[in-house]
Amino acid sequence: MEAAITSVLALLALLPLALQLLRASRRGLAFVLIGAGIAVTLALATSLLPIERVIPSNRPIERPQDGYVGSGSCRSCHPGEHASWANSHHRAMTQQATRETLLAKFDALDLDCFGEPVSLRWRGDELWVSMQRGTSSERIDRPVVQLTGSHHAQALWYSTGNERELGIVPLVYRVAERRWLPFHAVFLMPPEWRTLPADGTWNQNCNGCHTTHSMPRVDTGRVDTMAAEFGIACEACHGPGERHCNENRDPLRRHKIRTSEETFDETVENPTRMNAARDAETCGQCHSVSIVNREHFDSWREQGSPFRPGQELAKSQLVVSIADQDAPELRRKLQQDPQFFSHTFWNDGLPRVTGREFHGVVSSPCHDDGNGLRAMACTSCHAMHQEESDGRETAEWAKSQLKPGMDGNVACTQCHPEFTDLSALQEHTHHAADSPGSNCMDCHMPHTSYGLLKAMRSHRVESPRVADEVRTGRPNACNLCHLDRTLAWTEGHLAQWYGQPRLALADEQATVAAGARWLLQGDAGVRALIAWSAGWSPAQRASGTDWMQPYLAQLLADPYYAVRFVAARSLRTQPAAPDLASYDELLPQADAAAFARRLQDAWQAPRRSNSEILLDDRGLQWEAFRRLLARRDDRPVFLAE
Ligand code: HEC
Ligand code: HEC
Ligand code: HEC
Ligand code: HEC
Ligand code: HEC
Ligand code: HEC
Ligand code: HEC
Ligand code: HEC
Fold first, then answer.
1. pLDDT band for position 28 (50/70/90)?
2. In this structure, are residues 370 and 275 in contact, taking their beta carbons and an 8 Å threshold?
3. Which residue, judged by its Cα, is nearest atom 37 of ligand 4?
4. Contact 385 CB / ligand 3 (< 6 Å)
5. Residues at CB less than 6 angstroms from ligand 8
């Protein structure tokens, strides 16, 4: 900047001399002088100004290095792949905060975060937040510089003033509801929790999975966080691209590859050409719970993870497994946070949160040892680029980036073709072929993961077994649709249809519907899952909805905001949806309880008897209802999605 100003001043200084020469009719020389001055000014200005402009000092920056060149370098040769990637949520995971990237549109907003005012104001092209910092009473006024997410939720980060360090704005924008909600209400955590991710959490933690080739570069006296590229870009999955780009500048090479039988290009990685283990690990570098290996810890802080697509993940990251608690990295983690496992896993090591699909896939029988030709990996079902033949709207593909049809039985019959025959299917599932009960994944990959205020499919292929539920507390697939049936009912059918061994069940497991027990007695994570199922149409078809209102109404006053939120959404999907216009998920406990009671009192019980869901011909058996509720599992739950 100073250089540009100096050259403008120099030009101004030359002006009198040029004018003098003009007057003296030495026109040629005068024009040369003026021309030279302008040229020097422009050259200095263009070489210096933009660099100054693109290197802000108050937020993390993008700097391709270590062989990474950035998605812009791939575009000219791969316009199709570039375009489909640009439409994916991967691309938009980390963005600079601008009027365009911020999904909520406003000029000024005054929000409330549990009584604390938070205001957001645009000042020209800069967004500013004014808020109370953390739990201190200090109020701060800081520029919002970065955003996380574009699909379900968008979180905002402000510059703390300490170099490139970021702090989180305590309200998160929910895309579907177009609503700002406190961080504490969007994530499932005990209601009394009020701590936010500490300043610098993004730099050291979130960065690792939300950018390409992240480099924390944080130590005492320095916060110089950077990434090769914001968001999940080409090279996160294809490896550093410098050599590939350079070699393919040669048109002869390009021609040779494109016309040869094998279009294989060994200068770049392609997950579909890897064996199933490496394929899954490419995604598992982020879609897993893992800890950087001890020997890489120092270099990770400086240069990021040493993992490159195509390599064995275990060489860089310890993928956390309950079976392997002796690993020093894990021992240290457990010392810091003894609840680390329960925040993330069911007690058999399957994640109970979303975004960690790797553990499920690699522990499926279909993944095998990962080397079999038919072995299942992420790309068996997901497509990271929308295929040309895919007739769906781009937004539809981008929602879950599945190949066409892979939300249905093709996902499984591509490798288990014996079930494409409809009578074989019916014989296997004991449901009509067109019933939701014949959808492979609803029995073998049920919705037992929770995150982003919804339930998501488990990614471990396993079969419904009541014994597994008794052992792990993870709801079984049959009752996730048949909410109004008991565990004993399910067990009976599994024995009869599939010859599974019978087991002795506790009294309530035999007499009270699984859905009723889960909704009233489950821990907060289970309540959220089942509240979601109650709004899911296959479950509504299997169980009916006329009995659900008092149960879901109860959850409108749940201590956990996330549970309230999911329950209210499910209530609204019911055919006889109650009026929730005046309900707000953030109501104080007493008001929420009063609201719930009003709904329960106004409810018209169906005229039928079904003791499993606590109905008799006089209506709901309130005493039994309250007895169950009194034994709710109130152990604190925090789910680290
Ligand atoms: C100068 C042109 C050029 C540039 C730039 C370029 N590529 Fe390629 N790429 C090719 C050619 C040629 C092939 C081989 C034939 C084909 O698939 O089109 C190829 C193939 C690929 C493949 C398939 C490889 C395989 O064996 O299946 C991937 C993946 C890929 N490129 C990714 C990238 C990424 C990521 C970038 C940016 C970092 C990039 N390319 C930049 C020309 C280029
Ligand atoms: C281990 C990798 C990993 C880490 C570390 C991580 N995330 Fe994520 N994050 C993910 C994945 C994967 C998803 C997509 C989850 C899904 O769709 O189920 C995601 C999704 C999100 C979303 C929703 C985005 C959207 O578009 O709706 C938010 C918000 C988010 N993460 C915030 C954070 C914050 C804040 C941190 C740091 C405290 C963090 N994440 C750390 C992997 C990670
Ligand atoms: C999240 C991981 C991921 C990201 C990000 C990604 N890709 Fe891919 N790419 C894949 C996978 C997986 C395949 C295999 C086919 C598929 O899934 O669509 C693939 C296939 C390709 C192919 C080969 C297509 C063929 O004909 O076989 C090219 C070329 C390619 N990607 C280029 C790019 C470029 C360029 C970018 C960035 C603009 C990019 N990819 C971003 C994962 C990714
Ligand atoms: C560098 C980290 C990283 C890598 C590598 C990565 N992902 Fe992701 N993935 C994320 C994050 C973060 C999100 C959340 C993006 C969002 O939703 O805004 C995400 C979102 C997704 C989603 C959509 C979920 C949603 O809610 O929007 C799917 C599906 C997905 N990833 C699959 C894959 C597959 C398959 C691969 C491997 C081919 C892969 N990812 C590689 C980090 C990664
Ligand atoms: C057998 C098919 C199959 C395999 C294999 C598979 N997925 Fe999925 N995945 C699905 C289906 C189906 C969904 C649910 C989509 C929906 O409900 O809209 C899904 C959802 C997801 C989501 C959440 C998307 C969202 O809408 O929030 C992510 C992230 C994801 N998968 C990542 C992965 C990763 C990473 C792997 C490999 C480790 C993988 N998946 C392997 C079928 C599969
Ligand atoms: C990419 C191929 C592939 C996909 C996709 C796949 N499987 Fe598998 N599956 C296998 C292989 C290979 C095995 C192990 C060998 C065997 O038993 O056939 C297996 C085993 C199984 C088993 C255990 C068999 C036993 O006898 O214990 C079940 C159950 C199963 N698969 C169900 C499914 C379901 C349901 C889906 C869809 C969600 C699915 N598979 C998707 C390849 C696949
Ligand atoms: C109504 C629930 C249900 C549906 C739907 C379902 N399965 Fe199963 N499946 C089971 C149960 C239960 C078992 C376990 C049998 C046992 O106890 O070993 C099983 C077992 C299997 C096995 C193991 C070998 C065998 O044949 O017993 C495979 C493979 C399998 N299923 C694939 C599929 C595929 C593919 C689909 C969809 C086309 C599908 N299943 C749909 C409930 C279901
Ligand atoms: C995706 C939802 C879904 C799943 C999972 C599911 N079912 Fe069903 N089931 C239904 C629906 C819906 C019906 C009602 C008939 C119809 O509409 O197809 C039904 C009907 C039945 C019936 C006959 C009617 C009745 O209520 O007596 C039985 C028995 C049954 N299911 C047992 C099971 C068992 C056992 C499992 C697990 C192995 C299971 N279902 C898994 C949706 C499901």
1. low
2. yes
3. 283
4. yes
5. 431-432, 435-437, 439, 442-443, 464, 477-478, 481-482, 490, 493-494, 538, 541-542
Residue 216 to residue 214: CA distance in whole angstroms? 6
Are β-strands 108-113 and 454-456 bridged in parallel, bridged antiparallel, or unpaired?
Answer: unpaired
Q: How far is CA 7 from CA 14, 33, 48, 180, 468, in A?
A: 10, 14, 12, 49, 76
Q: Please determine, for residue 177, whether its predicted confidence score (pLDDT) is greater than 90.
A: yes
Q: What is the DSSP letter of 202?
A: I
Looking at ligand 3, which atom is closest to the CA of residue 387?
18
- Dump pLDDT digits (tens) for 320-366: 998 888 899 999 999 999 999 999 999 999 999 999 999 999 999 99
Task: Tell how strand 226-230 and strand 290-292 pair up.
Answer: unpaired
Ligand nearest to the CA of 235: 1
Q: Nearest ligand to the C-alpha of residue 260?
A: 1
Nearest CA, atom 42, ligand 2? 209
Question: Which DSSP helix (H) or strand (E) runs through 540?
Answer: helix 537-543
What are the φ and ψ backbone dihedral angles of 172, each rounded to 5 degrees?
-115, 140
Q: Report the alpha-carbon distance of residue 178 to residue 323 in Å, rounded.
A: 42
Rounded Cα gap, residues 484 and 238, in angstroms = 47
Identify the residue whose tokens are 């009473």.
137
pLDDT > 70: what percent of the chain? 91
- To test ligand 3's pocket by mutation, which of 88, 209, 242, 384 has the most ligand atoms within 8 angstroms of CB? 384
- At 291, give phi and psi (nearest 5°): -125, 135
Determine which helix (DSSP H) or strand (DSSP E) holds 568, and give its type and residue range: helix 561-572
Judge if the beta carbon of residue 435 lies within 6 A of ligand 7.
no
Any ligand 2 atom below 6 A from CB of 201: yes
Burial class (CB in 10 A: 0-12, 13-18, 19+), 534: buried
Q: Which helix (H) or strand (E) holds 44?
A: helix 27-54
pLDDT digits (tens, 9 = 90+) for 215-261: 999 998 899 999 999 999 999 999 999 999 999 999 998 888 888 87
pLDDT of residue 138: 87
Determine phi and psi for 395, rounding to 5 degrees.
-65, -35
Q: What tokens were used for 41?
A: 């000014």
Residues 6+ apart with CB under 8 A from 296: 305, 306, 316
The pTM score is 0.94
- 405 C-alpha vs ligand 2 centroid, how far in Å? 26
pLDDT reading at 199 higher than 50: yes
- Contact, 78 vs 385, CB < 8 A? no
- 177 Cα distance to chain centroid: 17
- How many Å apart are CA 293 and CA 297, to the nearest integer? 6
3-state secondary structure of 95: strand
